[in-house]
Every structure is written in C-alpha cells, then in structure tokens.
Automatic annotation (TrEMBL):
Main location: membrane
Domain Major facilitator superfamily (MFS) profile positions: 32-440
GO cellular component, one term: plasma membrane
Domain of life of the organism encoding this protein: Bacteria
Pfam families, alphabetized: MFS_1 (PF07690)
Transmembrane segments: 30-51, 71-90, 97-115, 127-148, 155-175, 187-206, 264-282, 302-324, 331-348, 354-376, 388-411, 417-435
Keyword Transmembrane helix belongs to the record: yes
Protein name (Swiss-Prot/TrEMBL): MFS transporter
InterPro entries given in the database record: MFS, MFS_dom, MFS_trans_sf, Sugar_transporter_CS
Single GO MF annotation: carboxylic acid transmembrane transporter activity
Lineage: Bacteria, Pseudomonadati, Pseudomonadota, Alphaproteobacteria, Sphingomonadales
Length: 445
C-alpha cells in the first residue's frame, strides 16, 4: 500500500531522515546502533563456534579434514540461504521482523548443535544457525547505517562490523574455559543462551527503519513513522512522501531491473571471490595452528589475536573510509589480506611469528569486510539496500562454501600449506579488481 494519505510530499518540506542525519546523534540513535553491535557480536560467536570446537570434535568423532571442512561449509550454505531468503524480507516487510526471525534461527541452531550426536545432526544444526547469521549480515548493519548521522555513517557500520570479532574473542575465551570441563558442547550452549537472551531485548527496543517506512510504505507506515520520530525526537510528518519511481511491489523484482542488473552482477562476482579467500583463512586458521603446534589452547589463542586485530582494523577502516574514501581502503585492505594469507602458510610453525601475524590478519580481514560492505551498501538505493546486500552476500556465501572445502581437499591431497595459502590469496586480488568497478548512488568519496 502506498500511503494512508495522498503522497503529496511532506507538509514541512523537510525529510525527517535529513534532520536525523544532519544533527548530532542522540542517545536513542546510539541505542539502536548499540543493539546492532550486540547482535553482530553474537553472529561472530556463532559462526566460529564450530571452528573453536573443531579440534576437539575431530578427535571425539574421528573426523577427516574433508568431513570437518564439510561441517564448516554447512554453516556457510545456511548463511547463503539466509542472505538470499531473509534480506528481501527486510526490504519488503521491514528490518525489525527480519532481525527477530534471524535471532530465533540462531538460538535454535546453536541449541541443536549442542545436543548433536553425529555428523548428520551437526550438519543440519549448522545449516539452521547459518540461516539466521546470513539474514542478519545484511539487516543489522543496514539498520545501524540508517540511524547514524551523515558524519558517523561509515564509523557506525564499522563498529557493527567490529562487533563480529568481539564475538569471536568471547568464543575463544569460552572455548578455553569450557573445553576441559564441559567439552565442545559447552561452546554451543553458551551461544544458544546469548541469542535467546537478546531476543526479548530486541523485541522491546529495536525500532523499524525510517528508510524502509518512507520508501516501501507498508500498511500503517505514517503512524509507525511518527512513533519512531517521536522516539528519536524528530518533528512528526503529516503526509508520506512520494514513493521512489523504481520502488515496485516486490524487492526481488526491483533489484533485477536493468538499471541495477550490471551492478548486481559485478558485486556478485566480487563478493564470491572475496569470501572464498576470507573464509578459508578464518575457518582453517585455528585448527591448522592447533594441529601444527599440538595445542588446542594455542589455536584458540591465535583466533583471539585475529579477533583483537579485527576490532582495531575494522573500526580504523570505517574511520578512514570517511577520510580517504571507501575505494582506497578497499584496495589497501584486500591487497594486504592476500599478502598475509600467503605469509600464514610460511610461518604457521613459528609461534612468535604467528602471534604477530594474527592481529594483522584480523585487521586485514575485518578492515576489508568494512570497506566491501560499504561498497555494496552504497551501490543500491535505500529501498533495495538490504536486498542488494543480501544478494551480494549470497554470492559471497557461494565463495565461502568452496573456500574451506577447497582448502580441506588440497590439504587432504597432501599439497603443502604454503602452496595452498598462496593459491587462496589470488581470489582476494581478483575481488579487489571487481569491487573497484562498482557504482556509488549515495554522495560521498
């Protein structure tokens, strides 16, 4: 439904989103971004829970490298399904319901993982968890971007991205704390509990996106918009604005219009190549360190240092994106990632070198994630932002599925680790070349 009143524009002539973005941010806006940070933190914990438990699970169930790689990839298949299926929901029916649905999937998937008694059940559990994580990837960051001021938009997005490695740090400490006493199941129980606790908080406090309400204009949009505006302390409006010309009845149909199709294809390729390299190193890094050093604790410590670097790198990249531009940061972080993946293959047997490499790898991983996410978000108009991110993320999940699988297959065939890492670094360079061709709809560098 277009609107409750004739779409003749705003009575005041001022877009409330402009008011929200041009003034200094207030506590209500920071609160929305804070909730998105907590949500993405749990995402980070959940997605690497299996990597943290991988070494112990391999011994318990006597898994081969290929079988562990398959379990790691099942999570990523679920993320592809979630990104493709849930992201259009965020553009069609709202960011808020999409986020709540994802939290339910994450809670259920982690609980099933904790009680799994074999390979098949664990694979199904990781698939369910992945659906929730995949849908959340595009929606939580989008909501934070839309509630931030113009001055803080890139930094807000990077703060949400930086919450991901915070979750992995928590996961690393949980792994160290529970593996000896409770085994690998304890890692999954903690994740299930965190998602379940966050759901009622999000249900009560998370508002709907103004960009969604004013561009998609669902039933009751004017009343809902004014409730949000009162909460954000922005003057109310008496009428809804005209809907964008390229806003049809279906987000899926809109994103495939000719005007968006070439951008969609470029980002599909770019993100698939990016995630191929990204998920190889982030999923195989901890178990490879643990196996090489014969220490599960060292593998967890390596993962923690990757996450420390990711927090600093992600937030720094977000700040610098607003200073030197998104494209320059994308090139720098992607090329650095390619070099560091190769270096990991050379230094995996050197503990001292690993502890230096780990935070640098984390900084490159999450710095590039921030720059690439912003590249995708700015390539689509607001009413298609979550769908565009979701489709690009789905392409990324295709790459992320085959990254761990290819790594496991090559290692299982006896290919040297340095050669495997060098091969996995090539897609990162190709990805940067593709991302550099993406358009930017919103103004900025």
């Amino acid at each position: 439904m277009a609107s409750e009143t004739p779409a003749a524009g705003y009575a005041s002539g001022t877009d409330p989103r402009t008011t929200l973005r041009e003034r200094p941010m207030n506590l209500k806006q920071y609160g929305v971004i804070g909730l998105c940070v907590l949500i993405n933190m749990i995402d980070g914990y959940d997605i690497l829970a299996l990597a943290q438990a991988g070494s112990a699970l391999t011994r318990d169930w006597r898994l081969s490298p290929a079988e562990l790689g398959t379990l790691l990839s099942m999570n990523l298949i679920g993320m592809a399904v979630g990104a493709l299926g849930v992201s259009p929901v965020a553009d069609q029916w709202g960011r808020r319901p999409a986020i709540l649905i994802c939290l339910l999937f994450m809670s259920a998937g982690m609980a099933i993982s904790a009680v799994s008694d074999g390979f098949t059940m664990m694979a199904a559990a990781r698939l369910i968890t992945g659906v929730g994580i995949g849908g959340m990837t595009s929606t939580a960051g989008t909501l934070a971007l839309e509630y931030a001021s113009q001055k803080r938009r890139e930094f807000a997005a990077s703060t949400v991205a930086a919450a991901y490695p915070v979750g992995t740090i928590i996961g690393a400490y949980v792994a160290v704390a529970v593996l000896d006493g409770y085994g690998w199941r304890g890692i999954f129980w903690v994740g299930a509990g965190m998602s379940a606790m966050l759901f009622p908080i999000a249900f009560l406090w998370l508002p709907e996106s103004l960009d969604f309400l004013l561009t998609r204009q669902p039933r009751g949009a004017l009343a809902t918009t004014n409730r949000v505006l009162r909460r954000m302390r922005v003057p109310e409006i008496s009428q809804l604005p005209p809907r964008p010309q390229d806003s049809g009845s279906s987000a899926l149909g809109d994103v495939l219009q000719p005007v968006h199709r070439s951008t969609f294809l470029i980002l599909f390729l770019a993100h698939a190549l990016n995630m191929f390299a990204w998920y190889f190193i982030i999923n195989w890094g901890p178990p490879l360190v643990a196996q090489e050093q014969l220490s599960d604790e060292l593998g967890a410590r390596y993962s923690a240092w990757v996450s420390y670097g990711g927090i600093v790198g992600g937030m720094t990249a977000g700040f610098l994106c607003g200073v030197i531009g998104v494209k320059r940061m994308m090139w720098f972080t992607m090329l650095a990632l390619a070099v560091l993946i190769t270096a990991f293959g050379h230094f995996v047997g050197n503990v001292s070198a690993l502890m230096i490499l780990a935070p640098l790898i984390g900084a490159a991983l999450f710095g590039s994630a921030t720059a690439n996410w912003l590249t995708i978000a700015y390539a689509f108009p607001p009413q298609l932002r979550a769908t565009g991110l979701g489709f690009a993320t789905t392409a990324g999940r295709v790459g992320s599925i085959f990254g761990p699988l290819a790594g496991g297959w090559l290692l299982g065939e006896g290919v040297g680790l340095l050669a495997v890492c060098a091969a996995m670094a090539v897609p990162a360079v190709l990805s940067a070349m593709a991302f550099s061709r993406a358009r930017r709809i919103e103004p900025g560098r």
